What does this fold into?
Amino acid sequence: MTQEHIKVLIIGSGPAGYTAAIYASRAGLKPVLYTGGQPGGQLTITNDVENYPGYPDGINGPQMMIDLQKQAERFGADIRSGLATSVDFSGYPHKVIIDDKHEVIAEAVVIATGAIAKYLGLPSEEKFANKGVSACAVCDGFFYKGTDVAVVGGGDAAAEEATYLANLTPKVYLIVRRDELRASKIMQQRVLNTPNIEVLWNTEAEEVLGSDEVEAIRVVNNQTGEKREIPIKGFFLAIGHTPNTDIFKDYLDLDDTGYIKVQPGTSKTNIEGVFATGDAADKVYRQAVTAAGTGCMGALDAEKFLVAKEFETA
It folds into this structure.
């Protein structure tokens, strides 16, 4: 196995990773960034990004990630393809294995591995990705303004997405597979008191229908077996996300859903010199702009940590 020693390692790309690389490079830390299993992160499967500051006409998601990578490289970041397959944070400096064959010994590690939205597993979800199927109402809801939409889920996230979309669309169908919502009481009240949200109880989505884009959803009542087709233009999944944090679970403090815990107001984890950014640590906002902000925090926290380390050993 090959080995190298570096100052700052950034695991993962996307807005958080690339922003961390920009700041770390400008600080002279010569960061190495491994792009991970999905180079560019979730925005590479998003066509139009219209809510990121600085792009009055919007920007294509993959192009935005290319621009961020070029900006990081301009300041000297070493961007590499590769997936972190295991870590050892039991001592210092930290050890990270890339692709099971290359060991990186890093004085500081910035985690930007992101999260993946959960889907139902319907073939049509993939077929209509960015053509009516979305896992983020805040990101994509505007595109369906004035049309009927559906949201799948029964928790707080689904309730929030449904009420958000209700301000943009004439009708929101909330598809709930049980006879009750799991959402908090206040969110349940908001849903039930919003006149243009129709809750479909004991109902599951069976198929997304359409030719080139979403035109309807076929649902089935899981008690009676009755099926119906509902005309919609937008189909939103709100059944949770899975953070890409499995390789860290033996060392980092995670919450009960796998998100990395950080010290409030920082990117610091329970391990000295390891910093968590973006959707790997954020289960609340999950936006490109907030991910970029925490990427900045990760780089600045790493820089302060390394300066303090040098002072200790001087």
Notes: The chain has two domains: 2-116+241-313, 119-237. The CA atoms of residues 179 and 291 lie 35 Å apart.
